[in-house]
Amino acid sequence: MKIIVAPDNRLNQVSKKIDIVDNTTISILDQMLECMYKNNGIGLAAPQVGILKRLVVVDCNDKSNNKKPLKLINPEIIKLSTENSEFEEGCLSLPTQYAKVKRPTEIIIKFQNVKGVFCKEVFSGLEATCIQHEIDHLDGKLFVDHISKLKKNIIIKKLIKLKKKIKNE
Ligand code: NI
Prior knowledge:
Shape: globular
Strand content: 25-35%
Bound molecules: nickel (II) ion
Distance between the termini: 21 Å
């Protein structure tokens, strides 16, 4: 799996729901997790690897200790807290770029697990931020869509330069 770097049209698409959770779905999620760990990320959404399906993996735990991978199929936010938290966000599709983003501190999501069973779970803090960031990807949104246009344009310009540099190396 190769991570797509912004700006790229594939990162602006709305991903499709998974109808049936099968072995292919599970295999994609496992490969996504492997890709995420390899790149030292804490979250990855399927469109970032060119798969326009509503699949997300997250692991906000300390890498060296116990891993706590979350595999979310068709995740959907059903409740947001009114209280907000601010975190400095990054994204594997926007390498070396960071910005402070304000999002609800606590969320309730529904999703299907790898057995296809519908689940409901509460998340808060970094995990809540990370899951909201990843669900944004499924709707074609990036963290820079939450900051000022000016700051976003600076980041996008830097990424265009970075992509050119990579291409010429
Ligand atoms: Ni991201």
